[in-house]
Amino acid sequence: MTATTGTQAQGRTTTGAPPPGRRRSNPSVGHFVGTVLKAVLCAVMLGFFALPLLWLATAPFDAAPSLSVSWPQWTLANFRTMVENPYALGSLVNSVLLSLGVVVLVLTLGSIASYALSRVVIPGRDALLYALLLLSSIVTGTAAMVPTFQLMNQLRLIDSQVGVILVMAAGVMPTVIFILKDFMDTVPKSYEESARLAGAGPLRILWDVVVPIARPGLATIAVWSVVQVWGNFLVPYILLRSPDKQPAAVVMYTFYTEGGQPNLALISTFSLLFSVPVVAMYFFVNRKFGFRFHGGIKS
């Protein structure tokens, strides 16, 4: 029995041995090469994203900025020039007003609409939501700009920031309702039943019970809406005529020469000022509410 087992083991050893004249590859070498390739790939990706940010952080303080990243000739003259510009700082205020208007509108109407769609079962409800989301993705702002301009003209809202707020809020509203409905579905109905037994109406239940529980979702929508409005160029560029009413995304377009050459000193300085409010808002909301992944969406 022992002799048979030894023979089998010897046979497996003989069968598993590499053929003569052929070397077995060292697994540690393959692991080392894979690690080096991963490190090189990570370094390339890090440089791809870090170099533009490094340029944005140094170019505004450079006396002669260029498109390359280099040690700057430190100066604050670019900021003094920006402060003396009659429309630069005012455009940032206009961007804040437009963002706040859109956020208030989409949070108010979006909360009511998503709560109603979450609690009232109607035939074709899910199909309606997906149809709204699909149409809002297919019919972009560029494609709908002509009828939108005609509608705003008939409503006498051309060169009015209210008209810009209405157009941009309507553009993001389908996505807002689609996202908020998922958050409304997670609110336990037993809480609402207890409030209803205490005599609370639907709006009181929405404000005192549902909104505090769905607050992370509302914060997510607020941040996402501000980002959508903050960088929007087309809608305010078409609907606003007065330079003192235009937001920062449009005013940045004026920092080009008549020949189309960018003024890098002004563009880099204004870009830094333009990005600070959004970054500060993200860290504030993240510290206040905390972001975590909720399905495919951050909440």
From TrEMBL:
Keyword Membrane part of the UniProt annotation: yes
Region (Disordered): 1-25
Pfam families, sorted: BPD_transp_1
Residue span(s) of domain ABC transmembrane type-1: 92-285
Keywords: Cell membrane, Membrane, Sugar transport, Transmembrane, Transmembrane helix, Transport
PROSITE patterns: ABC_TM1
InterPro entries per record: BP-dep_ABC_trans_perm, MetI-like, MetI-like_sf
Localization (cell): Cell membrane
TM region positions: 32-57, 96-117, 129-150, 162-184, 264-285
Compositionally biased tracts (Low complexity): 1-16
Keyword set includes Transmembrane: yes
Membrane topology classification: Multi-pass membrane protein
Family to which this protein belongs: Belongs to the binding-protein-dependent transport system permease family. MalFG subfamily.
PANTHER family linked: MALTOSE TRANSPORT SYSTEM PERMEASE-RELATED (PTHR32243), MALTOSE_MALTODEXTRIN TRANSPORT SYSTEM PERMEASE PROTEIN MALG (PTHR32243:SF50)
Record protein name field: Carbohydrate ABC transporter permease
Organism: Georgenia faecalis
